[in-house]
Write a sequence for this structure.
């Protein structure tokens, strides 16, 4: 971190700042310029509140040289992290195909979807049991019964399962869940993230609706700081002024994240576009742009779905997408 002081700073104030920084276990290198003085800070600056320094009378500008996330940072962990659950592998050249309905609705529905996505090549089953709905009157999910049904579908198909946790009180129900999803709305629920950091279970962390890539990485850091380093990041579209899609899929997040972190990155073309017909082109694009997987909503009868029907693929349409993605990945290998 570099702190540029204003010209003609008061020496006593300057000395006070230097002593305070040294007290934070940092080496402070002072460079006297003709007009201004630069303080170069060496050491772990991740706990320093940059705004606090910026607000001091004697400070002109503060600049971080190193990102405040350590464990998620590719700089300190150049090899890609591979997350594996059963046959689902994401990262390091492995592509995860996660698919299933937005919400678990019934035994018949989840078994039917699970079997068809498995036949199409899915490696993990998704399905919401606790649903974060905008309206309190909309279907909220089957809760513990939903998780029971997912476990039943896992038994029948052998597919590992991922489902969303909305609140810490639900955690005991997630004992047998293979991967826990943190939804976009909870990306900055730091209490929840800290608790998930104590688990020995992979986390699918979705990017918040209005969160920057750095904020997503800081949320991953919250989980990793507690010891749980098994995280898959998910870009699921962000809020923009565009109205033709439900959100705007930030595909450039793939190469940006690849540069910044070693964690795998999957794309959700369902929530990002909001329309089933846009899922296929965006899935192709995500595979071509270097994503480590896709999480796609599939329903056996989208027009009757209790949640997110318009963006849900039929099993046949999913098969087409999976075929396309397989061919793109194959072409990229040669
Ligand atoms: C979901 O995956 O069903 C979901 C609610 O996603 P998001 O948190 O990205 O909106
Ligand atoms: Mn959904």
């Amino acid at each position: 971190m570099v702190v540029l002081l204003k010209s003609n700073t008061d020496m006593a104030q300057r000395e006070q700042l230097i002593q305070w920084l040294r007290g934070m276990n940092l080496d402070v290198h002072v460079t006297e310029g003709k007009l201004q003085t630069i303080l170069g800070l060496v050491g772990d600056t991740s706990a320093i509140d940059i705004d606090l320094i910026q607000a001091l009378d004697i400070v002109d500008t503060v600049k971080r040289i190193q990102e405040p996330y350590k464990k998620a940072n590719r700089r300190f962990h150049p090899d890609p992290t591979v997350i594996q659950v059963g046959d689902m592998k994401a990262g390091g050249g492995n592509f995860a195909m996660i698919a299933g309905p937005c919400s678990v609705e019934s035994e018949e529905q989840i078994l039917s979807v699970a079997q068809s996505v498995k036949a199409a090549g899915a490696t993990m089953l998704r399905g919401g049991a606790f649903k974060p709905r905008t309206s309190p009157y909309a279907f909220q999910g089957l809760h513990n019964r939903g998780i029971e049904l997912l476990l039943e579908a896992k038994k029948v198909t052998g597919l590992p399962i991922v489902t969303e946790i909305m609140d810490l009180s639900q955690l005991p129900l997630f004992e047998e869940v293979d991967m826990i999803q943190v939804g976009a709305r909870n990306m900055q629920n730091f209490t929840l993230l800290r608790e998930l950091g104590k688990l020995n279970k992979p986390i699918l962390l979705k990017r918040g609706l209005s969160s920057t890539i750095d904020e997503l990485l800081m949320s991953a850091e919250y989980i990793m700081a507690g010891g749980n380093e098994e995280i898959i990041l998910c870009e699921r579209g962000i809020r923009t002024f565009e109205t033709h899609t439900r959100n705007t899929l930030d595909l450039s997040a793939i190469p940006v994240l690849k540069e910044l972190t070693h964690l795998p990155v999957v794309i959700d073309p369902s929530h990002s576009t909001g329309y089933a017909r846009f899922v296929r082109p965006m899935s192709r694009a995500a595979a071509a742009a270097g994503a480590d997987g896709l999480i796609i909503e599939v329903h056996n009868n989208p027009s009757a779905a209790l949640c997110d029907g318009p963006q849900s693929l039929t099993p046949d349409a999913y098969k087409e997408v999976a075929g396309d993605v397989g061919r793109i990945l194959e072409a990229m290998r040669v």
